[in-house]
Design brief:
Elements: E1 4-5, E2 11-13, H1 27-33, E3 40-43, E4 51-52, H2 56-60, H3 63-72, E5 77-81, E6 86-87, E7 99-101, E8 108-112, E9 115-120, H4 128-137, H5 140-148, H6 150-163, H7 173-187, E10 195-198, E11 205-209, E12 212-216, H8 220-223, E13 225-232, E14 235-242
Parallel strand pairs: 1-8, 2-3, 3-5, 4-6, 5-7, 9-10, 10-12
Antiparallel strand pairs: 2-13, 8-9, 11-12, 13-14
Helix pairs in contact: 1-3, 5-6
Protein name: Metallophosphoesterase
GO molecular function, one term: metal ion binding
Keywords: Cell inner membrane, Cell membrane, Manganese, Membrane, Metal-binding
């Protein structure tokens, strides 16, 4: 089956780290998206700061936002990439009209202007230790334990997340881009002019190396920046935009 095509005006958003109580930065944006004509919306992971299938408190506290997301899924074509803060969501009723990609199914190959686009949240192939961690936190035992003792554990998790700095990453982006491109070239048969799009690292930059474009999406949680796919003079462009929440 050929890769699905990314269409013009598709929207990419990553790392909003939304929580309805202490970091509500999605509700107004979702209301804005509901006013747009039908398009593709790519939610590239860590959209919620803590939303885990099987942990009922995380759904209860984000109920309003999830209802808005469900309404959006009846207007737009939504693709949701599992992150390390939001996972095991595929079976939720809120996601029944959303195309959901688990950690193990990423990257997902799309096409755009005869180019292959490799999409993932970005935390794939970091290290063997991290890979063990990702499977451990998704295990049935851990989820059941967390949900059963949620009256004690859930507030501690939220308190910890509140203190985290989810701002822009100031580390060397060129080093990261080289490392990520090298990994993709080694593992996947990537044709020239392919594009890698990831979140997770909070850089909001792009770099072209070895005839591969690496785009790391900006963290929406900071300045509410996102990317829109546009064609200008027959050329493909990823245009970074900022959402002005004061209008909604």
């Amino acid at each position: 089956m050929p890769p699905k095509t990314i269409q013009e005006n598709a929207i990419f958003i990553a790392d909003s780290h939304h929580h309805s109580i202490y970091n509500n930065n999605l509700d107004k944006f979702f209301l804005y998206l509901a006013t747009l004509s039908k398009r593709q919306i790519f939610l590239m992971g860590d959209i919620f700061d803590f939303l885990v299938g099987g942990v009922s408190n995380s759904f209860r506290e984000n109920k309003t936002t999830l209802e808005l997301l469900e309404k959006l899924s009846h207007i737009h074509e939504i693709y949701y990439f599992e992150g390390n803060h939001d996972f095991l969501l595929k079976n939720s009723s809120y996601f029944k009209n959303i195309q959901y990609f688990s950690y193990t199914s990423q990257p997902v190959i799309f096409s755009l202007n005869n180019q292959n686009i490799y999409l993932s949240h970005g935390d794939i192939a970091i290290s063997y230790g991290y890979r063990f961690y990702t499977f451990f936190i998704r295990s049935r035992f851990v989820i059941s334990f967390l949900n059963f003792f949620s009256c004690i554990l859930y507030p501690k998790i939220i308190s910890h997340l509140k203190k985290k700095n989810n701002g822009y990453n100031q580390k060397d982006f060129i080093f990261l881009a080289k490392k990520r491109i090298k990994h993709y070239l080694a593992k996947y048969q990537m044709p020239p002019r392919s594009i890698i799009v990831e979140g997770h690292y909070h850089h909001g930059k792009m770099e072209n190396m070895d005839n591969i474009l690496y785009l790391n999406l900006p963290p929406f949680t900071c300045k509410k920046n996102y990317f829109v796919v546009e064609f200008q003079n027959s050329c493909l462009s990823f245009i970074q935009k900022e959402f002005k929440s004061d209008k909604y």
